[in-house]
Write a structure and sequence with these properties.
alpha/beta; 12 strands; 7 helices; Rossmann fold; disordered N terminus; globular; 10-stranded mixed β-sheet
């Protein structure tokens, strides 16, 4: 994986933004788009934090916005929900089955454009944006954590990790990451699985790489409802948590709320 250079992407590369967009209408960026839902009752002026959600394989921004539980949770927390859309059926990230030779630049440039467009068009606090995603979206989230950590306050990859293996190192400042996964996940197993010419990576390898990168030290273990977590931190106050739940390949909105509240506790939001 290449180390991400300073992105020079402008909105002009993706085309002029549409005049209006929201949870039910695409925010167009050339041939790409995203959707956004501001908290219910928002005055349109007060900056709010945001949650950028990456969908799973063959998902869509429209599908994310149809998740009523996720929408309600974000609104209750006073958070804007930004649903992004992959270029293809899946995210174009290193070692993915149909993108073995990519360095991920096409998606990193897209996320850069989304963040610029959303913060220009809506009242969003740029210092309080968290990236999350489920399954393939969790894989995208790990790649963002390693290549665009300066643009987000924290990362919540759920049931997804790097394809094949993690990069040797990351770019940008160390960030806070809370990885959540089911103990009996067969779709994205904790130890990975072979898919065509490549392989889903091992979650433990991603955590080990990031532990070394961020100089994290163990704190211990803790249980939060259905989540059993191994917790670590570093001298900068970042948190690295690996949280397991009994179950398979499933997503629950309360996992996102839990991680968000953990970031608040350590002063990252």
């Amino acid at each position: 994986m290449r180390l991400l250079p300073v992105l020079g992407v402008t909105l002009g590369l993706f085309g002029a933004p549409a005049l209006a967009c929201g949870p039910d209408t695409d925010c167009q960026l050339g041939d790409r788009h995203y959707r956004i839902a501001m908290p219910e009752g928002h005055d349109g002026a007060t900056p709010v934090p945001a949650l950028v959600f990456s969908h799973g394989y063959r998902g869509s921004a429209q599908g994310v916005m149809r998740n009523g539980s996720l929408r309600r949770m974000a609104s209750e927390m006073g958070v804007a929900l930004i649903a992004v859309k992959s270029q293809d059926d899946d995210w174009v990230i290193p070692n993915a089955p149909r993108h073995l030779d990519t360095d991920g630049a096409v998606e990193f440039d897209y996320f850069d454009a989304v963040l610029k467009d959303a913060t220009n068009r809506f009242a969003i606090d740029e210092a309080r944006i968290v990236a999350t995603g489920f399954s393939a979206g969790g894989m995208m989230t790990w790649n963002l954590a390693c290549s665009m950590s300066d643009r987000f306050a924290g990362f919540i990859p759920i049931s997804g990790t790097f394809w094949l293996e993690p990069p040797e190192t990351c770019a940008g400042p160390v960030a806070s990451i809370i990885h959540i996964h089911g103990t009996s996940d067969r779709t994205v197993p904790l130890n990975g699985r072979v898919i065509g010419p490549t392989k889903q990576g091992e979650v433990s390898a991603a955590l080990e790489m990031y532990r070394d990168y961020g100089k994290f030290e163990p704190l211990g273990q803790a249980t939060y409802g259905d989540l059993a977590c191994t917790e670590e931190d570093n001298l900068a106050g970042d948190t690295l948590k690996f949280c397991l739940f009994d179950g398979g390949h499933s997503f629950r909105t309360e996992f996102v709320r839990f991680a968000w509240e953990q970031f608040e506790k350590v002063g990252r939001l």
